[in-house]
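#structure-requests
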Amino acid sequence: MPNKRTHAAEDLHFRVLKLLQDNPELSQRDLAARLGVSNGKLNYCLRALIDKGLVKLGNFAHSTHHLGYAYLLTPAGIAAKAALTHSFLKRKLAEYEALRAEIESLTTAIATQSDAVEAHVGAPEGAPPTALPNTP
């Protein structure tokens, strides 16, 4: 079963492939800035994608400065992006459902506590205090 580190690497690969498909002319520095990762981490990621045959490095034919490179998705890269999109979406939907359930639980707990506090505050003077319910 994949762990958090594997998911994080898959997420980064997905995001890099997605950005490169739309903007193959982006530099490593631009990609790193857009993704919020260090240049070194992005370089390591790109090397892995190139080694897997998912991305290839090409020259711009009309570059006025000889630093004009493009990171192009290979056919295997496009297929991998589709698979990563599916697993990314599946994970994010599971996270969403877990958050939705937690929010619903907390909302119910707050409503229960509010009702108990109102009942306690509205009790006649001199009445014995009632215990508030224990809620997580």
